[in-house]
Amino acid sequence: MSSRTKCKTNLKVVPFERRPMLAKQDFAVENHGCIVLLRPLTEAGIDYVNENIGQDNGFQPYWPTVLFELRYTDQFIDAIREDGLLVR
Hints:
The protein is an alpha+beta fold. The chain has two helices and three strands; from the N terminus they run ββαβα.
């Protein structure tokens, strides 16, 4: 008899179902300490900041990325989500 024993394993095949695609986020939020950057990632995001914030609203050197203080983060995110856009 051989010292090697062949082992047969019964592997059960599990059907694979692809998960639904995640919706593309409209904004990325970058926290840089006391300053937060709100970067629009889609056309809908750019339209939102043009209509609701505006380039002339304070110091906005990276437009259409919006620069604001950390204390306003929750207000911005809540307002964006209420309008049906996705922020993560």
